[in-house]
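so i finally got all the pieces together for this one. its two components total, 690 residues if u count the protein bits. some of the lines might not be protein, just check the labels. i wanna see the whole assembly predicted at once instead of chain by chain like last time, that was a mess tbh
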Amino acid sequence: MSKARDNILARLRARGVEKAPVELDRTPASPDWNREERIDRFCKAMRSVRTEVHPVSAADWPEKLAALAKEKQLRNLLYAPAGPLAEKIEATWRAHAGLPELVTREVDVDGWKEELFFDIDAAVTSTRSAIAEVGAMILWPTPEEPRTFSLVPPVHIAVVEANQLHNTFADAIAAEDWTAGMPTNALLISGPSKSADIEQTLAYGVHGPVELIVLLIE
Amino acid sequence: MQQKAEFDQRVQKALNNPQLRRNFRIAMDGLMEKRSNAFPDKVALEALRVTGANIRANALAKQLELLEQLEANCTRNGIQVHWAETIEQANRIVLDIMQRHNASRMIKGKSMVSEEMELNHFLEAQGNSCIESDLGEYIIQLDHETPSHIIAPAIHKSKQEIARLFKEKHPDIPYSEDIETMTRSARKVLRSKFYEAEVGLSGVNFAVAETGTLCLVENEGNGRMCTTVPPVHIAVTGIEKVVEKLADVPPLLKLLTGSAAGQHISTYFNMISSPRKPGERDGPTEVHLVLLDNQRSRIYADEELFDSLRCIRCGACMNHCPVYTRIGGHAYGSLIPGPIGSVIEPQKFGLENFGVLPTASTLCGACGEVCPVKIPLPKLLHRLRYEQVRSDHTGATIGQGSQRSAKEALIWKLWSWAHANPAVYRGGTRLAGLFRGIIPNKIGPWTRVRTAPKIAPKSLHQLAREEGFDNE
């Protein structure tokens, strides 16, 4: 082990005073919201940061996706053929003509980075769950739906299930037992990328997606 | 490093710059209002602040074991942990990693620790390029400046100034003062930088010991880019950033985003626990964590001053400081400006260099009132004023006693002697009353901006006695 490490830890050990332990109550106090309230809060919070939220059903969301893709004049749409949304997306795309090209590259991103960075218009991904209080989606990217899908293309379309809405972030961590094993990358996403670095004025579309579209399955 | 005269010069320059003062006034008013709106329930806010303070105090109380736990869990997850006592060591570690990969192009997310290390300067001197990708940091890098605020580094600039800067540095991009247009221009320019970068560097907001997880708070997506796209990710952080449990993160996140910019949550909260695993299709194949001490363990030794290590770098103390709002961040001459900077920087770089900073405060108490983790900033500013004039040399603070002046010490000795001896005190006030006519109107710097005090003909004691009070 390094000398720096030993020196730093030795200095902390030799602290002049014994630091008194602090009593911490970690039981999260969760609000008492029902399903409708959770949905309402989630939509309101997400829309307040310019996220487009569309209420959909488990049956009609692929139709909505197709309609949005057309309306936004996307040239192509990146999706995960081995992901949980694939079957329905493929079926819908087969049923309709004139939809944007479905794109997929089931190889490491390194091999098609240029295309991903400069040619892909939009990506659609699933989500793990979501947080009502602050309006954020939780993603644990997988080999099928890698991290860059929700980051690099200018438009990110995410499918969120209202049944997976937690009241708070603390609830999500506890209910899903995150401490049992964290993924490579866990993400909370609440809107399209933004910055207020110029005169404290909000501008959307910085380095992450310019648009975030949520299909909320109620 | 600075002396009082240089500081005064910078302050005068800032005060005489109406554009700068307008920029800060507008920005600080906006930030204060946003914070206030984010926490409408003051009782709930107070409870949350207590929770936040306890979480940070607990993490510091257990810092030794938590750092060991963090290292063990990160290592188990595949993150390579490095320790640096000094900024030289930390810079060296980063350079070694780059050289091992034959890398020369670094893209950076916002990191105050990398500013503390002067990493860009160091790496550029070795022939590497370091591009800042946070919009504010990118703007000041173009203009060869340092951040004037820890959350909004380019807050001292107006949109017109930024538009002119963009035109000068990127002549091919059409001139625009529209903020969204300028933001998109930066997106376009930096996109290829993310694409090309061989190493991504980021800071860390919270390092969770329990799971070995590095947490990053951001809005722009540049933090995710830096930690996801390049093949190597290096995270640099101070050793004080460790927290014990994952459950400690949600309250701190809420306090940080609410206090910093009035947000319920940032656009992204990015939690990294390992490099790319077999089968995963993106993400860096190597993740490094550099833990920097640079005097933190020394600050840690002081029973009172170690509270300053609770800081979660939200910037609320700056936004609410009447001094910071008027003079701006650069006048401080330190990396971190404002109240928390005036507490931390002298402890890191010595009171002999930054002893003037704790005096650049009115001790109005606003900073302590808004601090999300309840750092007693006014008390610590006071303590450092004492540290710089005390003569017993028993504390751990660097430059202790360096600002002590024999004249001032004598005056205070006389003052305390007079106040401890009733006869002297009475005689003194009577004399002052008698000779009030010949006390000068100009008393040094004090009367440069104030009217000299007029001494009353009779002291309060005298008046009270005349009114019949007789129980001294």
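The first helix of chain A runs from residue 3 to 13.
Chain A touches chain B through 76 residues (CB under 8 Å).
anyway lmk what u think
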